[in-house]
Write a structure and sequence with these properties.
mainly beta, four-stranded antiparallel beta sheet, globular
Length: about 120
């Protein structure tokens, strides 16, 4: 059974930083790309970032480029999203998810339970 467990998130002031992590199990880590999408109230789902552990290929949405950094720890079978210079518009529920690759449009096939990120102005 594929399992993705989100951790991190919380409340931070604009300009601050947060770190999200995702622990994966139930599948071969190299077979999937891992990333995050976010969903804000009244808005469409947005793919935020993605990394392919097998070859290191990454993807970032234009809205987060230069502010977010994704990395994978193949030994721990986990992925981390470091978010810096956060803005109020980054407020959303962030979901760790697995996809076949990080080539847009990214189709996430499995997702975690989600974690709330709130950025106050």
């Amino acid at each position: 059974e594929v399992q993705l467990v989100d951790a991190g998130g919380g409340l931070v002031q604009a300009g601050g930083s947060l770190r999200l992590s995702c622990a994966a199990s139930g599948f071969t880590f190299d077979d999937y790309a891992i990333g995050w999408f976010r969903q804000a109230p009244g808005k469409e789902r947005e793919g935020v970032s993605c990394i392919s552990p097998s070859d290191g290929v990454t993807y970032y949405a234009d809205s987060v480029k230069g502010r977010f950094t994704i990395s994978s720890d193949n030994a721990k079978v986990s992925v981390t999203l470091q978010m810096s210079s956060l803005k109020p518009e980054d407020t959303a529920v962030y979901y760790c998810a697995a996809a076949l690759d990080c080539i847009p449009p990214i189709v996430f096939e499995y997702e975690g339970q989600g974690t709330q990120v709130t950025v106050s102005s």
